[in-house]
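Appendix C reproduces, verbatim, an entry submitted by the partner laboratory led by Prof. M.T., so that reviewers can inspect both the input and the predicted structure.
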Amino acid sequence: MAQEVAGGTPPAGSPPTSLKANAIGFLDALVIGLNSTSPAYSLAAVIGPIVALVGVYAPGVMLASFVPMLLIASAFYYLNKVDQDCGTTFSWVTRAMGPWAGWLGGWAITMTGVLVIGSLADVAVNFGLLAVGLDSWAANELVRQGLTVLVILVMTAICVIGTELSAHLQDVLILAQVFFLLAFAAVAIYRVYTDSSSLDEIKPAIDWLNPFGAGGAALTGGLLLGVFMYWGWESAVNLTEEVENSATAPGKAGLWSTVILLVTYLSVGFAVVAYAGTAFLAENADEEEAVFAVLAHEVMGGWDWVVLLSVCTSALASTQTTIIPASRTALSMARRHALPAKLAHINPRFRTPEVSTWWVAGIAIAWYLVVNQISENALFDSLTALSLLIAFYYALTGLACAIYYRRHLTESLHNLFFIGIGPVVGAGLLAWLLVESIGDMSNPANSYSGVSWFGLGPPLVIGIGIALVGVLFMCYWRLRSGLFWTERRGVVDPALVDHRRSAKEG
């Protein structure tokens, strides 16, 4: 069991086989889960496109996007209770659905980190330079890319040095980020109600929370963007072997992360739409996170650096925390013989997954530099492909929860709805969004670059390419080392379920 692997003590002089137990607490895990979603950056990146699709109903779409995230967060909570493995989806899906599905789930998690780390670091550098007035540096591609690589290396080193140091840095970054966001939202709402907005203000209304106000097709597109906004909270669960009360605290941190994100997104969403109006946001939708740079100046005037620094700290924090699920999933796969054994090496001093962490960072840097040589739009297209991988492994996790607990679902209504029906409904919603994404991405006109790759949109080609590489590597590793594929599907150990129930009743 994963608990035994995580808690074992190796003989003196031998390399460690487990991560550092009880390194951080619940609040640290919660902060890491929040920062992994990069709230300020996510809002900056998608608020314009969502408003372009659904107008004033953007807050409603953010609310609707929360539903599948909460249902999948429930699956993470209950699966973590009976299997505290840092590989999360990889481990759980393997146990519930077999090694082939589990391997692909682990591959999807690892590759999301590779795709997004470079972009997050790039945004952190860009907004950081703008915040301190170094606009010319931000406009210089060579300087920006060089600093981006440096940021990735520094964040990776912090991840290797220790989970505690990572958590302390995240605590500082989340405080700065939330303070700056709330200050921005408060000033924007104040100026709306004092009729001092410099744009086409709209008084907020409760019916903005209706996600169906803009129609079905617009809602579908908005939900796809909304899923990206919430993605990342599960990093708290990837730290399960290093968190105090590992059976419950990481899962609770994941659940609370989604709730706090909902409140943050709705607050800022209402403020931005009310202050700027739908026309301005729709016209600037293709500017991505630059919309916040413009709004920062409009709302805050000479204090616009506050919002710029918020996006910078958000992306900086997420650069670090995104390395966590990718590296720990690779570690989990390696120690189960699903990847080369070297990736399971743990630093004897810091008790962190040193080799897998540096490998994830190295591949992410290579991807960032290579794709940037194609075009900046190609980098954005690679980020769009993320929704395919995210929807895939989240949906797998929801199904795995119901399958793994299948013998316990009828024991109570609670189990039936929260462990069975809820996660399956969440998986179904994400599977629907996955199909819709594929249809949307097949049209080259819907991509950032607007060009055709093999008759399809670049994001879909990137997604298909990553999937094919994964399948080919999986088949190769199956032929080279078949140990992992001897694992068989199972069900939750009744002793674990009964133990949790007894502890709760006690």
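The first helix runs from residue 2 to 7. Additional entries are available on request from the coordinating office.
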